[in-house]
Amino acid sequence: MAQNKFATEITFDLNDGSKIPALGIGTVPPDDPSQVKDIIITAVKAGFRLIDTAWYYGTEKYIGEALKELFDEGVVKREDLFITTKVWHSFWHSPEKSLDTSLSDLGIDYVDLFLQHWPICLKGGPDGTPSKPMADDENVKYDDDPVTGTKFIDVYNAIEDIKANTNKVRSVGVSNYSITKLKQLLPKVKHFVPVVNQIEYHPQLPQQDLVDFCAEHKILIEAYSPVGGTGAPVLKIPYVKELADKYGVTVNEIVNAYHICEGRIAIPRSSNYDRIKNMVRLPKLNKEELSALYKIGEGHPVRYVNDPWGYGIGFKWWKGDTLSKIED
Ligand SMILES: NC(=O)C1=CN([C@@H]2O[C@H](COP(=O)(O)OP(=O)(O)OC[C@H]3O[C@@H](n4cnc5c(N)ncnc54)[C@H](OP(=O)(O)O)[C@@H]3O)[C@@H](O)[C@H]2O)C=CC1
Ligand SMILES: O=C1O[C@H](CO)[C@@H](O)[C@@H]1O
User: Fold this and answer.
1) How far is the CA of 57 from the centre of ligand 2 (A)?
2) Global pTM value
3) Nearest partner of 7 among 231, 247, 320, judged by Cα
4) Best mutation site among 199, 270, 277 for ligand 1 pocket (most ligand atoms within 8 Å of CB)
5) What are the tens digits of pLDDT across the range 220-265?
6) Looking at the chain, which runs of residues are DSSP E strands?
7) How far apart are CA 47 and CA 104, in angstroms?
8) Beta-strand relationship, 196-200 and 220-224
9) Ligand 1 test: best mutation among 234, 269, 303, most atoms within 8 Å of CB?
10) How far is CA 21 from CA 10, 49, 232, 265, 303, in A?
11) Whose CA is nearest to atom 19 of ligand 1?
12) CB within 6 Å of ligand 1 — which residues?
């Protein structure tokens, strides 16, 4: 059956001249966040070169431990890896401090990609203390109107300035941006059009209008939650299993190929080491198969991880106690 080289060997071109691996490993914490150290070591040994993290995941110090071990043992060098982190929207006022905290926890002096996690601004706590994003009545604690506010643009501009003025960041991008938010941002970009828009994307959530808009502006789509997050609902789709049987690969490899064969980056997550090792092949899905996968969610899209563009659900996922304090 048509089988390409490994997904871990494919890279895509970014609009700023850099390259990004087509497949990355996600680092939202499992029940025991310290397991992320072994997850990263397993993933890198299996061939993964892109590590997707964020200050908000509280796992950067464990990734730092893994990186130290991998570098010390000569498994990879810093320049072999593509490391992404993000600034959470309660630190919209100080992205560089957030970045410095991430760099310190990761034990590295630059990231390959720095993303604005969400195009909204939340109230931060005093003195760099992470602030719980929802009040006890479950209302989100916004610091700017989520619909009419434009402070989120200043945040992206500040991220651009970090790339322009320091050596701490190679590329800059966004996450969870809708077409509306991109249309507000793009005329206000100071130096660098975002290289990626990281969004929830899987066969049950096709978003051709957003994909087309991003392509027009040379912004790559990076697909998070490729199996729909915890519980892996997308893997229960019978057609995904059918394709896995046809190509002799895992169901995870089919949902990753759904993106990679269409030029989108996929960033799955697993705390199961066998699964991680069996996520790296790239079945070459044909046009009809890609189109059939796309059609699964057409007309009745399902968003599993965050509600549309962050107006609620994602913020219930809050582990403030474990997060690194961002120091002045
Ligand atoms: N920018 C943003 O706002 C967001 C970014 N992300 C990024 O994207 C990454 C991936 O998204 P995420 O939602 O975490 O992950 P996925 O969609 O990859 O889902 C991971 C979950 O699916 C389970 N799973 C995977 N394969 C199987 C299988 N074959 N059978 C049963 N269960 C399976 C895993 O369990 P197990 O551990 O047991 O394998 C895990 O609980 C994140 O880790 C993060 O880096 C995610 C959300 C939002
Ligand atoms: O990146 C993120 O991860 C959490 C949980 O999946 C989500 O709310 C946030 O956008």
Assistant:
1) 8
2) 0.95
3) 247
4) 270
5) 999 999 999 999 999 999 999 999 999 999 999 999 999 999 999 9
6) 11-13, 19-21, 24-26, 50-52, 82-87, 111-116, 169-175, 196-200, 220-224, 265-267
7) 25
8) parallel
9) 269
10) 6, 7, 23, 7, 25
11) 229
12) 26-28, 30, 52, 117, 175-176, 198, 224-230, 232, 235, 251-252, 267-272, 275, 305
Main-chain phi, psi angles of 263, to 5 degrees: 85, 15
Residues in the chain: 328
What pLDDT, on the 0 to 100 scale, is given for residue 292?
A: 98
Nearest C-alpha neighbor of 261 from the set 84, 7, 1: 7
pLDDT at 56: 87
The H or E element containing residue 63 is helix 60-72
81 CA to middle of ligand 1, Å? Answer: 20
Angle between helix axes 238-247 and 287-295 (nearest 10 degrees) is 160
Q: Read off the amino acid at residue 166.
A: T
Which residue's CA is the nearest one to ligand 1's atom 24? 232
Which atom of ligand 1 is the closest one to the Cα of 27? Answer: 43
The predicted structure's pLDDT at residue 327: 64
Q: Which of residues 290 and 1 earns the better pLDDT score? A: 290
pLDDT in tens, 28-54: 999 999 999 999 999 999 999 999 999
Greater pLDDT, 4 or 105: 105
105 to each of 53, 63, 88, 129, 313, how far by Cα in Å? 11, 8, 16, 16, 27
Please report which ligand is nearest the Cα atom of 117.
Answer: 1
Q: What is the pLDDT of residue 129?
A: 56
- Which residues 6+ apart lie within 8 Å of 307 measured at CB? 313, 314
| Greatest Cα-to-Cα distance within the chain, rounded to the nearest angstrom | 58
User: Any residues with Cβ below 6 Å from ligand 2, and which?
Assistant: 28, 54, 305-306, 314, 317
Task: State residue 200's pLDDT score.
Answer: 93
